[in-house]
Design brief:
By secondary structure, the protein is an all-beta fold. The protein has 2 domains: 2-174, Sandwich (Immunoglobulin-like); 206-297, Immunoglobulin-like, CATH 2.60.40. The chain contains 1 helix and 22 strands. The chain has one helix at residues 9-16; strands at residues 2-3, 26-29, 41-48, 53-60, 70-77, 91-96, 101-107, 112-114, 121-123, 129-135, 144-155, 158-165, 171-174, 206-208, 212-213, 224-233, 239-246, 249-251, 253-258, 261-267, 276-285, 288-297. The strands form 4 sheets. Strands 1, 5, 6, 7, 8, 11, 12 and 13 form an 8-stranded antiparallel sheet that branches. The protein has a 5-stranded antiparallel sheet with strand order 2-3-4-10-9, with no helix packed on it. A hairpin with a 4-residue loop joins strand 7 and strand 8 (112-114). The two termini are 40 Å apart. The model is unreliable at 5-23 (pLDDT under 50).
């Protein structure tokens, strides 16, 4: 775990000025007001110089300082290959709000581990910003990388609020002055033999099975609950969401999708025993979506 070291305001002004990290900084913007209590990520400014130094400024909008148990994570796909790394991500920079420490990790094929050696530094010189410095070797010598950010506010192990930047997909930064190596051309292919006509592809659909409670003993007031529904689809990219309410009031909850299962996790409000926890799970793919409403009695 490494520490964020504040510097002088003069250094901050120079770092944010034109030409601080190169001639043409690139700004990636994300809308404000969509984060709840999580860090509301608004911009990610990237620049590099001829020596391969990469300078990054991360900004958020809804608080001068990060809350306790809040995090800002930056996921880097250094080879721009979605089939490698952890769902495409090869490196991870995670900054913790409680003490402004940070860690820089790489995916070793099974888990996130410390990336050694590493020349990454993180400083906060201006409120609501972090300034990150790294070098090409920190990203495996990359000349272009995909990346996305996640701001989270947690309550113990539960994610209470989340902001993704961009809202979907990834951003791409290409280092100025570093041309990627040309890919080798494919070997000549033999003339194809005539074959059967291709069978037209049937558009993928998505459906949700019944919603069930996975929490041991059901849903209890003041405790973490988990509900789930099996997702029936052949599509690879599935977006999921869950909306939870008790007596008409929204309850923070996090939706997750893995192995064709949609799970939704949150905390039933204290003192809500006897009331009903109601909501809707949704799953969306390109060209189709499905929703499943549910209601469960909250126990004491």
């Amino acid at each position: 775990m490494r520490r964020v070291f504040p510097a002088s305001l003069l250094v901050a002004v120079l770092a944010l000025g034109v030409g601080a990290a190169g001639a043409t900084p690139v700004t990636f913007a994300d809308p404000a007001g969509d984060a709840g209590n999580a860090p509301d990520l608004t911009s990610f400014v990237v620049d590099n110089d001829a020596a391969g130094k990469i300078s990054i400024v991360i900004s958020w909008a809804n608080a001068a300082y990060l809350n306790e148990d809040s995090f800002i994570s930056v996921y880097f796909n250094s080879d721009r290959n979605a089939a490698t790394g952890n769902a495409g991500s090869d490196y991870l920079l995670r900054i913790r709000g409680s003490d402004y420490s940070f860690e820089y990790l790489r995916w070793n094929g099974k888990d996130w581990v410390d990336s050694v050696p590493v020349t990454v530094t993180v400083d906060q010189n201006v409120l609501q910003t972090f300034e990150v410095t790294m070098y090409r070797p920190d990203l495996g010598g990359s000349t272009a990388f995909d990346f996305y950010l996640v701001g989270e506010q947690r309550g113990g192990s539960v994610v209470l609020a989340r902001d993704s930047a961009p809202d979907s997909g990834v951003w791409t930064y290409r280092l100025a002055g570093f041309a990627p190596a040309p890919a080798p051309g494919p070997p000549p292919k033999p003339a194809p033999k005539p074959g059967p006509k291709p069978v037209p592809k049937v558009p993928a659909t998505v459906g949700l099975a019944a919603v069930t409670v996975k929490s041991a003993g059901g849903i209890h007031a003041g405790r973490i609950f988990t509900i789930s529904s099996r997702v029936l689809t052949t599509a690879r990219a599935v977006r999921v969401a869950c909306v939870i309410k008790v007596s008409g009031r929204a309850v923070p909850a996090l939706a997750h999708y893995a192995a064709h299962v949609l799970t939704c996790q949150g905390i039933a409000p204290p003192g809500s025993a006897g009331k009903r926890l109601a909501g809707v799970l949704t799953a969306t793919i390109s060209g189709d979506h499905d929703a499943r409403a549910f209601t469960f009695v909250i126990r004491s």
